[in-house]
Amino acid sequence: MGEVIDALKARFQTRDIPKTVKGQFNALMRKEKGDTGRVAERLGVARRTVQRWVKGERDISNSKPKILENLTKEVTRDHQPRVRAKAEAEAKERGVYVETRARFGFTAAGGSTDDGRVRRLTEDVPDELIAPLFQALREGDEDKAQKIIAEGLAQEYFRERGTEGLQDLDVEFGDIDYIELDFQ
Fold it and tell me: pTM for the full model?
């Protein structure tokens, strides 16, 4: 995946999705209680194709990369829903902080105001960004998760609340050396 999603998984999940394509397919079949039609719909293939995979007439691991990508995405979306829900509820109640060392810089409407440089930060994630962060985890969307973390760090570190003119500040967040997330 990526650094942010991996950090979220490390803290807020107890185990990873199955590693093999066959294991992922079986997990999706269990989730859909063996309904080949629903599995076919989720993967964007014909029902008959799923039936051939189930019977062993075809090997799913030989499928097109797009199908395998959809499979991983769908299994990730359904993985450990109760564990994630419990972690998300606790995060909303207690709050979350992020500790990271990464390259930060920012630009404002008038042009570049500070070139990116490596900084070590430990800041709270604003409460309104916790739900979108867990949504990014459910979707396995690294780009979205990085943008949410960048916005949270921008609010807490780069912008003083209520300061005029800094609300349009666009924070760049990349070259992550390490990142950890935890409850407050």
Answer: 0.69
